[in-house]
Design brief:
Layout (H helix, E strand, L loop, with lengths): L1 E8 L4 E7 L3 H8 L15 E8 L2 H14 L2 H10 L4
Antiparallel strand pairs: 1-2, 1-3
């Protein structure tokens, strides 16, 4: 099982979209640890806003790229507001 997810940081006022084959809870925990990268820097307040599950990595990766290609906060917030399709 693969999960595409959107998390949000109030401190950074930013969304992040990713996908994982791990537990979504564990993946968010990793985002909230000190590390280099977009979600690093010690804010530690990333929270899950949205997720979709897929049976294979290729479909999850394709969906992640689609969401990232939007580059539109309004479109992401509309998706989050519509709820989880799962």
């Amino acid at each position: 099982m693969w999960t595409v997810y959107i998390i949000y940081s109030r401190i950074k006022d930013r969304y992040y979209t990713g996908f994982t084959g791990d537990s979504i809870t564990e993946r968010i925990r990793k985002h909230n640890t000190r590390h280099s990268g977009f979600t690093g820097g010690g804010s530690g307040d990333w929270e899950l806003q949205y997720s979709e599950t897929f049976t294979n990595k290729e479909e999850a990766s394709k969906r992640e790229r689609e969401i990232k290609s939007w580059k539109s906060r309004k479109k992401i917030e509309k998706l989050i507001g519509e709820g989880h399709p799962d």
